[in-house]
Write a structure and sequence with these properties.
By secondary structure, the protein is α+β, with helices and mostly antiparallel strands. It has 2 domains: 84 residues, Alpha-Beta Complex (Quinone Oxidoreductase, Chain A, domain 1), CATH 3.90.180.10; 43 residues, no CATH class. The chain is 24% helix and 7% strand. It is built from 4 helices and 3 strands; from the N terminus they run ββαβααα. Strands 1-2-3 form a 3-stranded antiparallel sheet. The N and C termini lie far apart (41 Å).
Length: 137
């Protein structure tokens, strides 16, 4: 990274502008994933957007979220933010919670009623435990 590069890959906030074709409206509370995908390539269409060769990773491959404003391309890269949670808490959901969910539902192909061991320190493990319990694992 060059001097002056803005870091930050986890973020949420209020929409202050949207294109005319966007489904989002001003003042919508949104959260973005840690990778921004095209939504049209074979990887994205198969639900594997994190393997897209040209993915955009805010804070790494482009300017990040430690800024006053962040531009997020394409509607599918945003999700409604849970209303009852603070933006600071919600920001971590785009990486940590989605990683835990993807591991449980994609990588392990776990099904309700199966046994699952999730162990170790850290928030990702806690989210994995909570996600597995909420989904019946």
């Amino acid at each position: 990274m060059k001097p002056g590069h803005i870091l930050g890959k986890e973020y949420s906030g209020e929409l202050v502008d949207a294109g005319t074709r966007s489904r989002w409206r001003l003042a919508d509370q949104v959260i973005a994933p840690f990778t921004l995908a095209c939504g049209e390539c074979p990887c994205c269409l198969a639900g594997e957007s994190t393997t897209w060769v040209d993915q955009v990773i805010p804070g790494f491959t482009t300017q990040g979220a430690f800024a006053e404003y962040v531009s997020v391309p394409r509607d599918h890269n945003l999700t409604p933010s849970p209303v009852r949670l603070s933006p600071d808490l919600v920001a971590g959901l785009g990486c940590r919670a989605s990683t835990a969910w993807h591991v449980l539902t994609g990588r392990t192909a776990s099904k309700p009623g199966e046994w699952l061991a999730v162990h170790g320190p850290g928030l990702l493990v806690v989210l994995g435990q909570a996600t597995s319990a909420a989904s019946g694992l």
